[in-house]
Design brief:
Layout: E1 13-19, E2 22-30, E3 35-38, E4 44-46, H1 47-50, H2 54-60, H3 62-66, E5 73-80, H4 84-102, H5 107-112
Parallel strand pairs: 3-5
Antiparallel strand pairs: 1-2, 2-5, 3-4
Helix pairs in contact: 2-4
Length: about 140
């Protein structure tokens, strides 16, 4: 269980990230590279407790790794919607936007890595008279 995080608005930078149905509100502030996540249930988690898979933690830290700022900022994020992989990507996009607020000169680096363009792919809706978005019911002659 993570300790309660106090965010000082004078030093913290904010960014919103979205992916699929996930929305992440992200604050970064100077620290030693810790990640705190508050889930939709209201419970606060340490980053590794909430995102069990290492690949998701790597994805979250990608903006820091690209800009050589790994371990210099703590991250506090509130997430809701979708699943954990989409939430991790939403946090990644939110961190990139917050880093841009911190230092606008990082824009070309983040832009070339594709971290400022939202991934707009979402689930396709189910159509009427079909099983799903694309799958059809089996045709029977009799």
């Amino acid at each position: 269980m993570a300790e309660i995080v106090k965010i000082d608005p004078k030093v913290a930078k904010y960014g919103t990230g979205r992916r699929k149905e996930a929305v992440a509100r992200v604050w970064i502030f100077p620290g030693e590279g810790k990640l705190y996540v508050k889930s939709a249930s209201g419970k606060e988690w340490e980053g590794r407790e909430y995102f069990e898979r290492d690949i998701l933690i790597e994805k979250i830290n990608r903006p820091f790794a690209i800009t050589d700022l790994l371990g210099k900022f703590d991250v506090y994020a509130t997430v809701k919607g979708s699943g954990k992989p989409a939430q991790a990507e939403a946090i990644m996009y939110g961190i990139a936007k917050a880093l841009l607020q911190h230092n606008p000169e990082l824009r070309p680096t983040l832009k070339s890595a594709g971290l400022l363009t939202r991934d707009a792919r979402i689930k396709e809706r189910k159509k009427y008279a079909q099983m799903g978005a694309r799958a059809k019911y089996r045709w029977s002659k009799r």
